[in-house]
Amino acid sequence: MNLNIVIIMGRLTADPEFRQTASGTAVCRINVAVNRPKKKDAAEQEADFISVTCWRETAEFVSRYFSKGSAIIVQGCLRNNNYTDADGVKHYSYNVLANNVQFGETKSASQSSGQPAGNYQPYGYPAQPAAAPQYGAVPAPNNNPYVPNQAASAAGYGQQAAGYPARPPQASQPAQDPLRIGDLGEFEEILSDGEVPF
Fold this sequence. Notes:
Elements: E1 6-12, E2 17-20, E3 26-35, E4 47-55, H1 56-65, E5 71-80, E6 83-84, E7 90-91, E8 94-103, H2 107-112, H3 150-155, H4 185-191
């Protein structure tokens, strides 16, 4: 089994470098500074600077909405870009090929509360609907049969928008009685004979 998944969260070190290939395909290169865990005796925070390449819609999204200092979350895979130059010297480098890009926290939010802003969902937990657009991700199936009537809420509270069915009434659930356990005497008799009942 092979696995090549990279998830990084950091800040752009410069504005995105957007260009198009000769065939018109959008490509964008960014560098992301990712802080390392701070050591107790370290005077400064150390960081890794990771090169990321985005293609097509993801490239257009990054070039349009991100700039130097923007917080970003990138999910992708690691690619090596090894080559031999004209002098025969072998060069080794790696970069991340982005599959999914999301907004990270804003500077003002991190300074005021230290918590991610917006609708950040840690990796490994079920994804919640995001307020910010995400590009490159495969949408999860919607298992919820009820879709809120957004046009009705835009028309005003209590008013129904034309052409949309009214929300089905919600039946109130009766209060549940506490669990009633009947007579357990017959079980006490089975257990008291010293034999295992199965």
